[in-house]
Every structure is written in structure tokens, then in C-alpha cells.
Amino acid sequence: MNARELTKDEYFFGHKACAGCGGALAVRIAMKVLGKNAYAALPAGCMSAVGFNFPQLCFANNAIISTFAGTASMLTGIEAGLRAQGATDFTAVGFAGDGGTADIGIQALSGAIDRGDDILYICYDNEAYMNTGVQKSGLSPFGAKTTTTPAGERIRGNIRPKKRMFEIAAAHGIAYAATASVGYLNDYMDKIAKAKTIRGTKYIHVIAPCPVGWGTRTDETIELARDIADTGLWPLAEYENGVFRLTKRAREPFADPQNYFKKQSRFRHLTAGDIAAITADRDLNWEKIKKEYEGS
Amino acid sequence: MSREFLSGNEAFAFGVRLARPQVISAYPITPQTIVVERLAEMVEDGSLTAEFVHVESEHSALSCAMGASAVGARTFTATSSQGLLYMAECLNYVSGGRHPVVMMNANRSIALPWNIYGDQRDSLALLESGWIQAYAQDAQEALDMALLAYRVAEDPRVSTPFMANLDGFHLTHTYEVVEVPEQAEADAFLPRFETENKMSESVPKNLAFTAGPDHNTAFLYKQHEAMRRAADVIAESEGEFAEIFGRGYTGLVETLHTEDADTILVTLGSAAALAGEVCGKLRAAGEKTGLLRIRYMRPFPAAEIVRAVAGAKVVAVLEKDISFGFEGVVFTNINSALKQAGADVRTVNYVGGFGGRFISESDIARIYREAYREAGAAAKDGQRVRFIGATA
After folding, report:
1. Residue B67 and residue A82: Cβ atoms within 8 Å?
2. What residues in A contact B23, CB-CB < 8 Å?
3. Alpha helices of A102-164 — where are they, by DSSP H?
4. CATH class of B253-387
5. pTM > 0.90
6. Residues A172-204: tens digit of each pLDDT
7. Homologous superfamily of domain range B2-245
8. What are B323-353's pLDDT values in tens digits?
């Protein structure tokens, strides 16, 4: 899909998201692809905080805030409830942040995938609990400074890599899973359009930069969301019928991660050695991808 | 109408089937399991058409039920004890969203110490979660309560979730002869679930939103008023229930010999059946005893209790819960009602039945006599609350 094919109708507007918010863009674009028959569930997090302040409610379609841990289980109920009443033409879609997905919501998500519930779960990943003031989540990357992983003498930012949610979803034998980035919207829109047509559980994990939490300018969001893919740090891929596939292969040699890190104050403390370690890890991951995804 | 030999759990499942729920979500926990096993069998044998969702936790059970209710489906879930506590967040979520989910809770003790048997510490710990709370005494009332629960909860004047409590094992696992109504009778009593409080294709809505300091109180006030209105709707619904099914209930409380009683025992759940027998025996022996069974803890029957007990000399409250360091929560509620009404009657609190400890005929007889004799005095050990079986 491309911008010309996208409807001019808006479904998520008038909200209070910060300037340059990648999450708001991810939700807005997804809704344009899904259309008015989408029933959205959003847990506690940035998008529910900025979009559901009575009496200013910002979804033109049906939408509900779920409990923090209950995005997937509420989607299950919405889908079952509509189907039980004979509805067929709708999408139950979740928009949960990285903490809502990889930490507190992972049990309900795993349960829904295990049951094969006919829902679309979109994780907009800004790599920390941004709504509560930038605390580390299970999807914060190695090295990231957050308010709970300060970069000082003893702690040098987050010391653990991101949970591999895409692979975790795939390991359930899910109907469809994909990674995406708001920097490559056509690829993201293709994946949503495809997910809409597939029965069963769909999981799309979209990188959504956060100027506040990442320490970047508000006009750098798209650039950063491209960099993370171009550097090979976030491969754009999908999983369908038991097979992994790259959808938009980053050109090799990959862009230098150094520039990506330099633009963000959360990585300012990283040493050349840290970046070399991250780069080596990336290369190891790509060896695996080439072998497992491409059979080479 | 047919007669069946059913346990409390099974009777409730029969009642739920008659209510035609569209989505059932449940996670197993003793002693609740049989109600959802029977419902699964009913879905399997085609006698019930419902989506049966095998959720991975109690939190998801209620979250799923709310999602289904929020698109206008009639839903059912069931739990007990630790499961009820695990889904606690969702209880307030469902009631605040005003979704009329019906849930059966098999009353069971709470860990620690681990114990699978009955007391009422689970549901009473969640008295403030905004749910209607009803307590059944026997299997027939359990079946009937399932139908009444949907009728009351879904009434647009109420639109509040309903927790039907059955004492674990004492009621959930005890078999009795139960009259099972015909489907046509149930359909005549319980209309289809219709609500405007839902997401739909024709009228899209944003639900479960944030309400800041300026708007928050108005929502809570509406919720409070809806719970108060539930009392009238319960009475009205029971009236119609009696017309259709020929079986009557007595609203928020049930009384026995309270009119001229000196000593009135107040309790709830299955213990009331034995208490009624003891009360009758003591009456026969010339003692002026009475019994008040609380059927609903929310809405709380303040006026009904005051009316029934104000003329007595002493009220003994027997309950299966304790607010540690203070007293039983039922006792607290009753004292508040009496004080507000200016009723001058002495009250005394007995707590027991914990972890399934049997409350015997002699326990109840002792309570009647001791309460009458020692009304107003503190227990011998200086405690305001008297534990049954603390030293056993």
C-alpha cells in the first residue's frame, strides 16, 4: 500500500499526543487501513491516556480502554461477543505499548495466540514506559538510559537486550506475525492490510520513536524509525504458515549504528566499545536470519 | 418443569443455560469447576449455544467477559477465592463500565494458610468493588438466582454486574432435588439483553475512558444510585418470578420469627439453613429466638434489617470473614445501619466457619444463649469479636 491508496478519512484525531509521537502515527495509519469496522482496545499507556479524556474522546470508530494486562483478553471477548451475535465484517484490534505487551500483557497475549482467537494485536514499541515517565520495559534496548536504568558509574543504562516478542509470538505457531517501523509506512500498511484478511491471531510489532523518551527532536521521528531498520538493528520481517521472511531487506553494508545512537540522548553515554558490542550482536542476529529466513 | 437431583454448582449451571448466555469465559478453580464443566458439556451436546472461551487466567476471564458485554453479548463467568482476588482489578473495571456481567463465586477461604474449603472471606473482601452481591442458601435458590441475576443486572435502571455467591462445598457440592423450569418459562421471565451502553456498528462509542477531577464524582454518583435502585428492581423481578415460576423470594433479606424475638441471629449463605432449624427448636423450648438471613450484601438491606431487628434485645451476627484486628464486615455494616436509624439494640459478633470448619447445631444454640446472656459485654478475652473454633 502507499499514501495514494490510503483513505482521507480519519479515525484517531484531536488527541493530546506529543509532537513527533510515533505511537500516534502507528495508530492513526493502522486505523486508516482497517476502516470504520475496527473495534479497538487500548490498555493503560500513552495512546489511551491521550485519546480517552471524557468528554474529549478521539476515536471515530468503536474503541475501549482495557485493563493494563488485559488488551488481548478484552479483544477475545469483543471478537467472541460480536461473532456470537452474528457479526462477520469487523476487526478486533489492539494497540498496546511495549510494556503493555512484553511485560504485564504477555500472559493474556500468549493465551489469545494459543487459542487462535481471531484478533489483530499491534504493539507500538517506543522502548520504555513513556506514559509514566520513561521507565525501563522488557522492550527497552541494551544500553538505553531510562529513569529506572540511569546511566552512571554502577548502572550504565539498561543491561538487557529487548525481549524477542516477534519470535515469541511466532513460537506459538501464530497465524501471522510481523515486525514494522513507522519509518517505512508502506511496509507497515501492507502488513496491516494482510493481517486484516487472515483468520486467527495476528501480531504486528511496530517501532514507534518517542522524542520525549529517546531524547530527540520532534522532526526526527521518521528518520530514526528508518535508521533502526537501515542499520539492521530492527529487521522488517513477517512470519506466516510457519515460515519467516524479510519484507524489506536492509541494504548491506548496513548503515553505521553510530549515527543512530548519536542522535538520541538516551544513548549518549555509550562508549565505542558498547556500540561495537551492539553491532557484533546485530551481525550475529543477521547470520541467524540469513540461515533461518533465507536458507543461506 | 422437571425435577432433578443436582448439586449447587449444577443447579447454577442449569440456571445459566436457561438464561442463554452468548459468551462464557472461565478458568478452573476448586470448588467452582463443576459449574463450568457442566456448561461446557451443554455447549458440546447442543443444549446451549454459546462461545466457550478457555482463558488462561481469571483476570482474562473477566476481561474477556467485559469485552463481550461491551459489544452487547450476554456473558457468564465463574470463579472462587484466589481466582476472585486475581481478577479483582477487573471487578471494579466491569462495574465502573456498568456492564451487567453475571458471575458465580464459589465462596472459599483465602491463602495463607492454603485451604480449598468454604468461608466468605473472598467475596466480602471485595464488597466495595461495585458488584451486586447475593448469597444463596440452597441449590434451588442457586438456580433461580442465575435467572434473577441477569434480569436485575441487565435492567437499564441498574446496569450493574452481579456476583452470585454459593458456599464452597456446603452448597456447591451438596445434592438436592431441584425444580428446573422450562425454557419457555425462562424466556418469558428474562428478555433478550438490550443496552445502549455498548459499542456497535450503527452507533460507534468510546468506552472505559478517563474522567478527571471535574467529571469523576458524577460517574461514581450514578453508579451509587444504580446500586440503590437495584433493591427495587430485585423486589419487582422476584414478584414477576413468583408469578411465572410459582416460587417466591423475599428480597434483600429473609426472616424467621423476628416479629417477637428477643434474640435474633443474622447470618448469610448456607449456614442459615441450620440456623433456621436451631431457631425453631429453641422456639419450641420456649426461647424467643429469631433469624435474619441476609440475601444481598450489596445493595445493603439497611432498612430491612433495622425493621426486622429493632425490637429485639440482642442481635448476634454470625459471619465467615474477619477484618483482622477489628471485626467482621457484615457486623460493621449492620451496626452502621442500626446507628443511623437510631435503633437501640445490642449487637455481638461471631466469626467462624473458616477454612470449612463446620458450624454445628450446638455452636448455633450456644451463640443464641450466650448472646442473650452476655449481650453488650466484651468477650472474656477482651476481644470485641468471638471466634468459633479458634482453639480447636
Report:
1. no
2. 77, 80-81, 84
3. 106-115
4. alpha beta
5. yes
6. 999 999 999 999 999 999 999 999 999 999 999
7. Thiamin diphosphate (ThDP)-binding fold, Pyr/PP domains (3.40.50.970)
8. 999 999 999 999 999 999 999 899 999 999 9
